[in-house]
Design goal:
The complex is a heterodimer of chains A (about 450) and B (about 575). With about 450 residues, chain A is α/β, with parallel strands linked by helices. Chain A folds into two domains: about 210 residues, Rossmann fold (3-Layer(aba) Sandwich), CATH 3.40.50; about 210 residues, 3-Layer(aba) Sandwich (Dimethylsulfoxide Reductase, domain 2). In chain A, strands 2-1-17-16-15-3-4-13-14 form a nine-stranded mixed sheet. Chain A has a five-stranded parallel sheet with strand order 8-7-6-11-12. In chain A, helix 2 crosses helix 19, helix 3 packs parallel to helix 19 and helix 15 crosses helix 17. Chain A is globular, with a radius of gyration of 25 Å. In chain B, helix 6 crosses helix 18 and helix 13 crosses helix 14. Chain B folds into two domains: about 100 residues, Urease, subunit C, domain 1 (Roll); about 400 residues, TIM Barrel (Alpha-Beta Barrel), CATH 3.20.20. Chain B is of the alpha/beta class and about 575 residues long. The longest helix of chain B is centred in the middle third of the chain and has 16 residues. The chains are: A alpha/beta (about 450), B alpha/beta (about 575). At the A-B interface, helix 3, helix 4, strand 5, helix 5 and helix 14 of A face helix 1, helix 2, strand 7, strand 8 and helix 4 of B. Strand 5 of chain A pairs parallel with strand 18 of chain B, so a sheet runs across the interface.
């Protein structure tokens, strides 16, 4: 820290480093309100008043985002949505929404991450790439972490890394000498190596392509794109001692699957992490259904757990707060005066695609960059309020923009880790003058909406 | 605000008031001797029953497992909704209502204090966030400590004082109220998918038995002078033949008795009172448990009554929930918490025609009726495990009326009817005994000095029920009893009228009660020991673990001075 500026970070992963060091770039200085088609600078009070008017007047507003802010802000957001009689939704609607639907169908056997650090001897990543997307995950919680009953497997990683590097060099050299690509045969054809037969901790990666995480893993299983469902169901059949009448499932020979199933049954405690590769490929919630059911089946033979790899830092918190206040984790509709939940009908993307909403408040997310075109068109055609610390494509198209303080850097709060462990977020630096937190801004809007609706 | 509740039939067992007609005066949130009648608001309670506000000793209303249950069961919410009003927030839920709805429903029944058992310490923040959002009631929560590695290790080494100091740190860090023990040793074993067989089966990797855990924590509880006893969910819960385990658990702390004061609370005892060797031969063990408890002073129980309805079972007992999932094939949630505990959730429907479920229904009532002293057994459903807390009025009517019991009895499984002890029991609870089982007894067991009575200086939490004991024959009119206890005529919380005839007229924040243990030794030694091993045991940092006091919207600490 130097003069209220973060200069150096310790213990942080690459992703958090970019966040902490670059948070002050691309920031909006003052609130903006659109007048005669132009975004004009305005006072905070004016922006808040304008926002409250928009929300109070709207008959079916949507309040979307929430996954990158604190639980305290989300609590106020829910009160605001209820007051405005709108729909409130968080980003899980476009990432792990299908997982939630499947969990509601079959349940989920899960745990906190420390449990895995201490006990898991088989770690499977399916459709996720923690080495790149959750950089500290493997060494803090799974294969390379040291626990009470399981030791770190990082030593075995070193020769593998050396081999990979050597291979890369040889490939490069041969391509220079022979002037053509020389590539080794794909690994899926190979049976799981004896490394998997060891009693020690081991890691398997299942993905459609060889990711960095796969390089770290003891075994990589390549599945054909969009055929995860078949592979999961085939594994379930093997684990239930049923015969498979085919030689190959999703590009994987049945013998290999049988070996993998053996490893799964033989472990002390196994865990399956699944990412967006599984939730958002063909089959969506059915894939998750199969994965959850696979883990249920495995529990007849050994102990096996499953956990989704979440994205935004507080998306779990958003689901959690939504659930305790309304009973439902996302896509909650207050237009009847009580919470309703029917994803597909009450989820924001669907509402926008049908063009049903007449105003929106976007907080801590950027739907203009991520939503389908039709949805974005409808989003920007009605009044749009954006609360965000940074300039985003959404905020450029908004009618009211209120800059806020960064939660976790300039403001305190609570967030939930992906395994539902609540953690305090600290205030590291002072926010620039005049910047309020999301919670304070929402409180102000909420009070005004209540006043406009005559409930105070 | 000043209030006078006039002319009601007052039932205040802690002050031995049994249905006398008297006035209760309230000033600034407390019960007082007298207030100026001209300045006070007067509630005419003529022909009504006046009791202290209800105190629920065991009810899962907040925290990670409750919330996972909410998430798991949208079908539980669709038909049971509460719309928003200018005063109240909206909500949903039959067996696991959302937080606001939970508060309102308790207030409507005249309950003003609720204890949330089983909080995984690592997720204490979550529990408190939800309790902050639970209005209308005072609340507290019990951290799960029976399988915490520190406890296991210190008890294994016989270091009770160190163990006590660490427990004190944990109570403070989680802002907890009592030591909760769930399936001691079994949850640690569940980490690798195993369980312990009985209270003498050693915990894998730790070389101590569940018996030693219970006894050890009982001593720790005494060393810390905690207001409540240890709160125990026994081993082998929900398995035929487990009444023996429950008895052994009670017996194992018999010689740690503390004068006439109880030293152990066996919670939701119904689930631990099965006789027989399998589900076919399962029958009631209530008689044996009642016989034991009737002759002892060191134990209190709560019922864990089953009501025939659709509900959601959730406990920290992971292995038990797994068995339940195997039995039902329903959806199943498991959530293990590092170094501390586990938990599980399975939706469940209790059916009248099922022999086992009907027997469970019978066991709960047998326990409550066969244990002679109402100060020893309290009314709970282990919400939502036996049934949602909204079924309490129905249970009160069963306790108060043979006729009500008979009516339900006629509809249950024939085999269960034949084997049930209920037809042979004539006892019917009086209103006085109901007041003991639902407020006075629980407040006493919890050591809540300000709650559960209407003496001068008590918190002005009052429930007024529209029931005239002089005119209505309570045993003959169970429906009238049920209706009266379902919606209080008035609920007064902290001296303010919050509900009238089922309408919430004012939303108040309840206090969060927690125990502030003052160690006589230097607490720094504990902190340095914890810090040394923190990173090894947990995946969060020491600084991020404790819940600071300002995290609670309304903190209400109870100070105790520990011996260590």
């Amino acid at each position: 820290m130097k003069n209220n500026v973060i200069t150096r970070l310790k213990n942080a992963c690459a992703i958090s480093e970019t966040k902490f060091l670059n948070y002050s770039n691309h920031r909006r200085q003052v609130p903006l309100v659109r007048k005669n088609g132009e975004l004009m600078e305005a006072s905070l009070d004016e922006a808040v008043r304008r926002s409250a008017e928009i929300l109070a007047k709207a008959s079916y507003p949507i309040l979307y985002g929430w996954s990158c802010t604190s639980c305290e802000a989300i609590r106020v957001g829910l009160a605001l949505a209820e007051e405005a009689g709108g729909v409130i939704d968080n980003t899980s609607t476009v990432c792990h929404g299908p997982s939630v639907l499947s969990i509601q169908d079959v349940g989920m056997a899960s745990c906190t991450l420390g449990q895995l650090r201490h006990r898991a001897d088989l770690i499977i990543y399916w459709g996720s790439n923690p080495w790149s997307a959750h950089p500290r995950h493997i060494d803090r919680y799974t294969a390379f972490s040291d626990g009470r009953f399981q030791k770190s497997a990082w030593r075995r990683y070193l020769p593998r890394l050396n081999a990979a590097l050597t291979k890369k060099r040889l490939d490069r050299a041969s391509s220079l000498v022979l002037r053509k690509e020389v590539s080794a045969p794909t690994e899926t054809a190979k049976s799981p190596s004896y490394a998997l037969a060891r009693k020690e901790r081991k890691m398997i990666v299942v993905d459609v392509r060889r990711t960095h995480s796969a390089d770290v893993a003891d075994y990589f299983l390549q599945v054909e794109p969009n055929r995860d469902y078949e592979l999961l169901q085939a594994l379930r059949m093997i684990i239930r001692d049923e015969e498979l009448d085919v030689d190959e499932v999703a590009g994987v020979p049945v013998e290999v699957l049988e070996d993998i199933a053996d490893v799964m049954i033989g472990c002390e405690l196994g865990v399956l992490f699944f990412g967006v590769g599984l939730t958002m490929s063909e089959g969506k919630l059915r894939n998750i259904d199969a994965a959850l059911s696979l883990v249920r089946d495995l529990n007849k033979r050994t102990k096996f757990l499953i956990m989704p790899m979440r994205g935004h830092f507080n998306v779990t918190g958003a689901n959690t707060v939504f659930t305790w206040q309304t009973g439902f984790p996302y896509a909650v509709d207050f237009s009847h005066g009580y919470p309703r939940y029917n994803p597909g009908e009450t989820s924001v993307v669907d509402i926008l695609c049908r063009g049903e909403s007449d105003a929106s408040l976007i907080i801590a997310s950027d739907p203009v960059s991520h939503f389908p075109r039709q949805a974005v068109q409808n989003l920007v055609s009605s009044p749009l309020i954006v609360i965000d610390p940074q300039i985003t494509p959404t905020s450029l198209l908004a009618d009211v923009v209120i800059p806020s303080a960064f939660v976790g850097i300039e403001a305190e709060g609570t967030a939930y880790r992906m395994d539902h462990v609540p953690l305090p977020l600290k205030k590291v630096v002072e926010p620039p003058e005049g910047y309020l937190t999301d919670t304070e801004i929402l409180q102000k809007i909420f009070q005004q909406v209540r006043r406009l609706k005559g409930e105070v | 605000m000043r209030l006078i509740v006039k002319n009601g039939y007052v039932y205040d067992p802690l002050n031995s008031v049994d249905g006398e007609r008297m006035d209760i005066c309230v000033k600034d949130g407390k019960i007082v001797e007298k207030v100026d009648e001209r300045k006070a608001k007067i509630i005419d309670a003529f022909g009504m029953v006046v009791m202290p506000g209800g105190v629920d000793i065991h009810c899962h209303i907040a925290g990670s497992e409750v919330n996972a249950g909410r998430l798991l069961r949208p079908e539980d919410h669709f038909k049971d909704i509460e719309a928003k009003t200018a005063i109240t927030r909206s909500g949903v839920g039959h067996s696991i209502p959302s937080t606001f709805t939970t508060g309102y429903r308790y207030a409507r029944m005249g309950y003003t204090t609720v204890m949330n058992p089983s909080m995984p310490p690592l997720e204490a923040r979550h529990t408190h966030e939800e309790l902050n959002d639970t209005p209308m009631v005072d609340k507290a929560t019990y951290p799960l400590l029976g399988d915490w590695w520190f406890v296991l290790e210190y008890l294994r080494d016989g270091q009770f004082k160190e163990c006590a100091a660490h427990v004190a740190w944990m109570i403070d860090a989680t802002k907890g109220y009592a030591i909760k023990i769930v399936n001691p040793g079994g949850l640690e074993a569940w980490g690798f998918g195993r369980n312990v067989r009985d209270i003498n089966d050693p915990v894998p990797h730790f070389n101590l038995t569940p018996k030693e855990i219970v006894r050890g924590l009982c001593r720790v509880n005494h060393l810390l002078h905690m207001p409540h006893t240890i709160h125990v969910h026994t081993n082998n819960l929900g398995k035929p033949g487990n009444y023996a385990t429950a008895l052994e658990t009670m017996k194992c702390v018999e010689n740690l008795n503390n004068g006439d004061k109880p030293v152990i609370h066996i919670t939701h005892c119904q689930f631990s009172a099965f006789k027989g060797s399998d589900w076919r031969t399962m029958e009631s063990g209530a008689e044996e448990i009642a016989r034991y408890v009737n002759r002892r002073k060191h134990v209190t129980l709560d019922m864990g009554q089953v009501v025939f309805t659709d509900t959601t079972t959730m406990t920290a007992d992971g292995p038990f929930q797994y068995i339940l999932y195997q039995l039902t094939g329903n959806k199943w949630v498991n959530h293990d918490v590092e170094t501390e505990t586990s938990s599980g959730i399975v939706p469940f429907r209790y059916r009248r025609k099922s022999y086992v479920h009907a027997t469970q229904w019978s066991i709960g009532l047998e326990l409550a009726l066969l244990i002679e002293d109402p100060w020893k057994i309290y009314l709970t459903t282990d919400h939502p495990n036996g049934a949602p807390f909204t079924t309490y009025p129905r249970i009160i009517s069963w306790l108060m009326s043979r006729r009500a019991r008979k009516r339900t009895m006629e509809k249950i499984s024939r085999r269960a009817q034949r084997r049930s002890l209920l037809p042979s029991i004539n006892r019917e609870y009086s209103l006085y005994e109901v007041a003991v089982a639902t407020r006075a007894g629980t407040a006493k067991a919890l050591g809540l000095k300000q709650k559960g009575h209407l003496g001068v200086g008590a918190d002005a939490d009052i429930a007024i029920y529209n029931l005239n004991p002089d005119q209505v024959d309570l045993a003959k009119k169970p429906k009238a009893v049920r209706r009266a206890f379902q919606t209080s005529a008035y609920t007064i919380k902290g001296g303010e009228i919050v509900a009238i005839n089922g309408d919430i007229v004012k939303s108040v924040e309840g206090n969060t009660i927690w125990v502030d243990v003052k160690l006589s030794s230097n607490p720094r030694t504990v902190v340095s020991d914890l810090k040394r091993r923190f990173r090894e045991y947990w995946t969060v940092e020491y600084e991020n673990y404790p819940v600071p006091e300002d995290y609670l919207t309304a903190s209400s600490p109870v100070s105790v001075k520990a011996e260590v």
